[in-house]
Amino acid sequence: MDDFSSSLGSHLVADLFDANALFDPIPAKDVLRRAALAAGAHVLEVKTHDFGARDGFTGVALLAESHISIHTWPEHGYAAVDIFMCGDANPRLSLNVLKAYFKPARAEVQMISRGFIGKTQRGLAAAGF
Fold it and tell me: Is 69 labeled as catalytic in the residue annotation?
């Protein structure tokens, strides 16, 4: 019998639309750290890169439990968020912190359970992967 409750981690993917604070990576670095801590994760390192000329930034929090990343497109009011966590860390709590900071008018969120132990991946094999 397949055990669907034994995934190794939760992968949350969010699209933030009509968001704010998409230019400056300096305060976002602290927000990524706070988002990780809110989820119960352990921060190893936080890095950001400013694309300059108000062209947005990318950032990643490297966690013992995996990562939180964000990439912004200020010209579109858009941010792509990727949160993958294992163990007891809760990626939804990270997203709450990010949404409070970036204040999107709309957020589309997908949650994917990853790494089902002992589950045969027939669907992927049938799709040619």
Answer: no
Return the closest-CA partner of residue 102 out of 38, 21, 23: 21
Set 7, 67, 69, 71: catalytic member: 71
Q: What is the pLDDT along the chain (129 residues), one digit of tens a residue?
A: 344 457 889 999 999 999 999 999 999 999 999 999 999 999 999 999 999 988 999 999 999 999 999 999 999 999 999 999 999 999 999 999 999 999 999 999 999 988 887 765 554 444 444
Q: Which residue of the set 10, 11, 66, 94 is catalytic? A: 66
Is 61 within 8 Å of 29 (Cβ atoms)?
no
Whether 66 is catalytic? yes
- How many residues are given for the chain? 129
Among candidate residues 49, 86, 94, 113, the one labeled active-site is 86
94 a catalytic residue: no
Sequence-distant (6+) residues with CB within 8 A of 94 are 12, 35, 36, 38, 39, 41, 68, 83, 85
